[in-house]
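EI: anyone free to look at a 245-residue chain?
SC: sure, send it
EI:
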Amino acid sequence: MLRRLAIPAGALLVIAIGLLSSWSGRAESMAERLESDSRAALSQAGLGMVEAAFTTSYGAPTRHPQLSGGEGLDDERRTRAAQIVSALPGVGGVSWVDGSVNAESGERGFEPLHCQEDVDGLLRTRTVRFEEASAALLPASRMLLDEVATALEPCSGAIIAITGHTDKSGDEDANVALSMDRARAVREGLVRRGIPRESLRARGVGSSEPMERLTPEDPANRRIEFSVIRMEPLTPTPVDTPGPR
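SC: here you go
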């Protein structure tokens, strides 16, 4: 019986690896095409000193490039370079490697809201996890937080809401307190990774906001969510300051 079951399982693994390889190949091809198109468009505009990198700091392909080079350019030409790259088909949010705002024009703004999309992508198959009944991050989640911090870096000036959730098991007052402690732990983790404290807002909602299509008791509701809520700095209030607990 076990031998018969091993064959389908192995076949599924091979299929999954094949699909992943296929997706990875398409993503790399997309990034190479966008990089080539950007190089040609910038060169034609006399901005060939500007480079558009369509890879993340971890080497993964992305459609959200970071611009570098052209340190002597004035703000008008930097804005022009960002607009040229952003106008290419398939390109997402564009930002400069120094974290400055992408581009400006009378028709549309190019604010780096792609951070939300990048973080959502990281958390689509993984979650920030903690020790049971604790706000201590598991080792794998500390590595995931490294990636989240990297994804948030280009959105300098954004306000990021960090929301802690629990399932409905146990006392709800304790759930709210635990979810808040976990959100604060994630906030402190991001601060240690270079994200400005004044950009981060932590809150805990206990089990009051279960995931869609899940019952409130489902353990999958134990999660951390990130939301880019605005693109302007706010003055921290006492409510946002961690208490002595």
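EI: Residues 12-24, 100-112, 232-245 have pLDDT under 50 and may be disordered.
SC: 👍
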